[in-house]
Amino acid sequence: MHHNKKPTPMRTLTSILMIVLTLLSCGKQQPKIDYNSQNQSDSLTMDNIAADTSKILIAELPVYFDSTDYLIHPIGLINLNESEGKRFLEIGSYSGSDYSNSGFSVDSYSEDFFSGNIANLVFEDLKTHNQILLTDKVLNITDVQYLRDLSKKINRHYILYSVIDKDMNFDKNLDYQDITSLYISKIDGTNFKKITNNFHQYIGGKMIIQDLKFYFRTIEDIDKDGNFTKVDKYHYYYIDFANDDYITIEYNPFKLIIK
After folding, report:
1. Domain map of the chain by residue range?
2. 131 and 124 in contact (C-beta within 8 Å)?
3. 191, 182, 188: which is closest to 245 by C-alpha?
4. What is the DSSP string of 107-122?
5. Per-residue pLDDT tens over the stretch 162-199
6. 140, 121 in Cβ contact below 8 A?
């Protein structure tokens, strides 16, 4: 009679890591950097688009973060040049949307978060109905997160953004083959600033409300081969909201291990 051996914790951990690595390798294409083309400007501007008769602006229905004083209007673009065979900076797709034939909508939405491929955002004050544009640049804003729990703690309101802000591989698209950066603004869209360093790929973060810090990681193409691989350098940061404003600090989680 044969008995199955119970897997050891190390064997189980190894199996989990192999599964994770396999899933990652089968995922979307990784960003690339063409260092020969980095003298280009960061992005198109909204004025460029307004003057370009081959593109039109489309707005999604507004998003509202509960208990705030602002509506957020996601703005996207479509390319009218059908010969190119694809749209420029599409905002997702949703079969129930009024724009389903055009492929425009916000992909997902929850109480404090929405995502898509969004060229810009318009913030509207619900009391005065004044509107401001988030930026004069044309971007690809993929995630928008309101830090609600932080606002309850410190009575200051911030939004974090995952943003593709530059055509790093020079293919004339802002997409997931380019670098994603972390940005921040106030709840009204003012003080929109880049947090991550240039040429660093943002790879996620989390808010630790008890510490009043948002922790995040980036990866740097340290060997300058244009690809992000396991031989490149990971960086660890936190945004500290404990004082009147915020500061971003790089930290070393391995300082007790590697000396």
Report:
1. 31-198
2. yes
3. 191
4. SEEETTEEEEEESEEE
5. 999 998 888 878 888 999 999 999 999 999 999 999 99
6. no
Q: What are the tens digits of pLDDT across the range 2-52?
A: 454 555 544 444 443 343 333 344 445 789 888 776 665 556 677 766 666
From the list 239, 233, 176, the residue with the least C-alpha distance to 205 is 239
pTM: 0.79
Map tokens 């980095």 to a residue: 38
Q: In sequence order, what DSSP letters do the residues of 196-229 get, joined into one string?
A: SPTTEEEEEEEEEGGGTEEEEEEEE-TT-SSB--
Question: In this structure, what token pair is assigned to residue 217?
Answer: 């990681």
- DSSP secondary structure, the chain, as one string: ---PPPPPHHHHHHHHHHHHHHHHHTSSPPPB--GGGTTS-S--BHHHHHH-TTEEEEEPPPEE-TTSSEEEEEEEEEE--GGG-S-SS-----TTSTTTTTT-S-SEEETTEEEEEESEEEEEETTT--EEES-SB--EEEEEEE-HHHHHHHS--EEEEEEE-S-TT-SS--STTS-EEEEEEETTS-S-EE-SPTTEEEEEEEEEGGGTEEEEEEEE-TT-SSB--TTSEEEEEEEE-SSSS-EEEEE-TTTTT--
Residue 109 contacts residue 74 (beta carbons within 8 Å): no
> What residue has token string 């479509």?
78
Q: Tens digit of pLDDT for each residue in 63-92?
A: 999 999 999 999 987 766 544 444 444 443
